[in-house]
Amino acid sequence: MATSGVSGVNSISSIYSFNNFRSKNPNLLLGGRKVLLFNWRRRSSLWVSNVASDQKHKTKDSSSDEGFTLDVFQPDSTSVLSSIKYHAEFTPSFSPEKFELPKAYYATAESVCDTLIINWNATYDYYEKMNVKQAYYLSMEFLQGRALLNAIGNLGLTGPYADALTKLGYSLEDVARQEPDAALGNGGLGRLASCFLDSMATLNYPAWGYGLRYRYGLFKQLITKDGQEEVSENWLEMGNPWEIVRNDISYPVKFYGEVIEGADGKKEWDGGEDITAVAYDVPIPGYKTKTTINLRLWSTKLAAEAFDLRAFNNGDHAKAYDAQKKAEKICYILYPGDESLEGKTLRLKQQYTLCSASLQDIIVRFERRSGNTANWDEFPEKVAVQMNDTHPTLCIPELLRILIDVKGLSWKQAWEITQRTVAYTNHTVLPEALEKWSFTLLGELLPRHVEIIKMIDEELLLTIVAEYGTENLDLLQQKLNQMRILDNVEIPSSVLESLIKSEEGKEQAVEQKEEEGKDDSKDEETEAVKAETTEEEEETEVKKVEVEDAQAKIKRIFGTAPNGQQMVRMANLCVVSGHAVNGVAEIHSEIVKKEVFNEFYELWPEKFQNKTNGVTPRRWLSFCNPELSEIITKWTGSDDWLVNTEKLAELRKFADNEELQSEWRTAKRSNKMKIVSLIKEKTGYVVSPDAMFDVQIKRIHEYKRQLLNIFGIVYRYKKMKEMSPEERKEKFVPRVCIFGGKAFATYVQAKRIVKFITDVGATVNHDPEIGDLLKVVFVPDYNVSVAEVLIPGSELSQHISTSGMEASGTSNMKFAMNGCLLIGTLDGANVEIREEVGEDNFFLFGAQAHEIASLRKERAEGKFVPDPRFEEVKTYVRTGVFGPYNYEELIGSLEGNEGYGRADYFLVGKDFPDYIECQDKVDEAYRDQKKWTKMSILNTAGSSKFSSDRTIHQYARDIWRIEPVELP
């Protein structure tokens, strides 16, 4: 590795004269930073309003509808080199003495940002001028990965930057490896959001994202002899060259306090704990387009006037710092542990901070574009808000609060606007995973919002009563229990009174019918006359009793459980308040309609849609797998597939071509060698590139069934040990079984699974009898950058969740796109992938979604008989062959017929025999490399449907109702 910048000279000053540079190159202040326009070849003319300096370079009359224009030039390697040198000297993130790799990366990133900011300003000035409808994507996670290669790839500048860095003594790849992964996400939810941003920009849609700027993210995962250990991420330790702090864009965010009602009935949220949310912008470039959109992240701090200076001067420093610490810690950690009340409170604060700051910002932008007077009825025509899962649910009551309390709109008008503006993406079919919050905690933290949520709940109750009527009170009670936003909270008095009145009406109708059926005989009439006074008195008393009985009956049927928890169901709030609800795969969307939200679907079928997830082919094929990308471009005739993945289908007609197959295998081999190096670097293990690379990388969770995978490996290992060397070689294809993923810090069972995988690996990998025939590797601290190495070189990928429990998955799409074969269940997007790549090119096993409930019932009734091979594995593990750790709790979760943490809820034992038999089919197919390569090609060809570009087109057309806006 080079130790100096150029020709062994360590000082950047010695190779660069700023005075000479300054005399030859103009500069322009854009977006709050120095942007250098070098001697670049003219590319095009972009419309730009320089909002930072208000200095406009006019090429057209200022009154023209075209606005102003600015010449922007395409940089070549010479101008890029000058730009990098400039930033190395005058954007001093590092000491000036040496130009080493870390400094080379930061200077290069700053140089790229110059171009991004020019395009960013041009994009949003044009959007402001045209007053276009804009979509805002709210998500607690954005798993961006490294930005450098993606940015210069999208800008079409990979060549110039590679050449410039070569002249400075470094390779672009080595410089790019210096970038830490942004710790803004954890799994598929966050990576999906990032793929969407890339597609929004590439397709020229006026949209951007809102998230939180986590200081430490989730955690950095270490793998030790004790399994997974967590330490804080340090991704911001050296600063982040991709973000632009907007100190002029900040909003107050409030917690606690009280709601005060004025004499005019208007309510005000007063007092409490105040913090400030400050905007940090991250430009997101589109691929081969001028459009550069924005990811706006919020960081939290305490306003200067809120600092307790008196306490500090009195020596009570802890008191003085207390409010500051409370403000800052909101953005410390992604998903702080919520086992404690403090943890729950912090999570709610995070969610509300995201929603409040973002909604305030959206409204400011709407009002600015509207001119002197905002027409609030037009708000949904200019704004679309997409909630990525339930984490941003509080944007619903927050929007209502601002419209009603701040802008003075009526409840009816504000409610109609909100329902037309927000939409909800569901990401789980697990009822227990649907987010709920304590009604008491939410009421203390956000008192005004709870009042608004109660109003929404009341609207819902009235709708349900009107829909189902009051004839069958038990049915009505069932519907209310399933659909209410507020669980186990008293029914509003208006609804209760309506139900009592209805019940009284029914009783009176019964009495009237009975009266009409009485015998009108003369004798009875005479008797009635004689006893008239007495009967009138008795009827009065009976009516009193009947009124009391009706009240008691309604309160009994619709009352609350005395010891039950009062909760707010966030998913129900999203469904009720949004105009669209979408699942993220066809099977998932059907489960959402038929099971998860069936009652809502019956009430509002028009709300429910499917939007199968997708991944960006730029990052997940072109940039991370350039060898295969060149082959695809060659055989499809162009690189159009990068923005039109339907072109990948053209590979089908060449799948049997021996030349293509040879090139395909060469590319795969090259990528496997990169995995060999990664494994050696991360774990110390040396693996053979001649083995099949079998990969499962995703969050560690019981439903994703890493346990099924490792049990299959244990079974394979045990059978190997029982054979002679010759028998082993004949029976088994060599495999490197690779795992990666993080178990949530408080998820004990998931951490046990990590420990078990590493223990199995420690035993198998050091067994001289087995050698290269089987290796088990857990790659620590799995992230986007690790995935970008593992996915291109993988040959078999495992997507083996219990059927019906994975909403979609996106890593399955990335693997298929890179020519990796999949083994999996009919779950999530696996269903659609199998349809597209062909049934013969997908290794299918396991129970199907419609069978799961009956299989669990069978287990509960004690009728399930486990396969002897499954019992064999459990017995083998219990012998202690994989070390002294006690795995009784882990194995015990797979045993018994009922009970928490027991009864094999995720059906590992049920699917195990089918799984290992399917793995035999994998071995058989892999032995025929010509057949395997054809299957690999057909997987890439069949992944044409799974581009995030396609998904974003559907969101834009069906939910957001926005149009592409291409800069002139």
From TrEMBL:
Essential cofactor(s): pyridoxal 5'-phosphate
Annotated SUPFAM superfamilies: UDP-Glycosyltransferase/glycogen phosphorylase
Transport keyword on record: no
Record field: compositional bias (Basic and acidic residues): 503-533
UniProt-annotated stretches for the region Disordered: 503-544
Alphabetized InterPro entries for the sequence: Glycg_phsphrylas (IPR011833), Glyco_trans_35 (IPR000811), Pyridoxal_P_attach_site (IPR035090)
Keywords in alphabetical order: Allosteric enzyme, Amyloplast, Carbohydrate metabolism, Chloroplast, Glycosyltransferase, Plastid, Pyridoxal phosphate, Transferase, Transit peptide
Function: Phosphorylase is an important allosteric enzyme in carbohydrate metabolism. Enzymes from different sources differ in their regulatory mechanisms and in their natural substrates. However, all known phosphorylases share catalytic and structural properties.
Similarity-based family: Belongs to the glycogen phosphorylase family.
Designated name of the protein: Alpha-1,4 glucan phosphorylase
Organism: Anisodus tanguticus
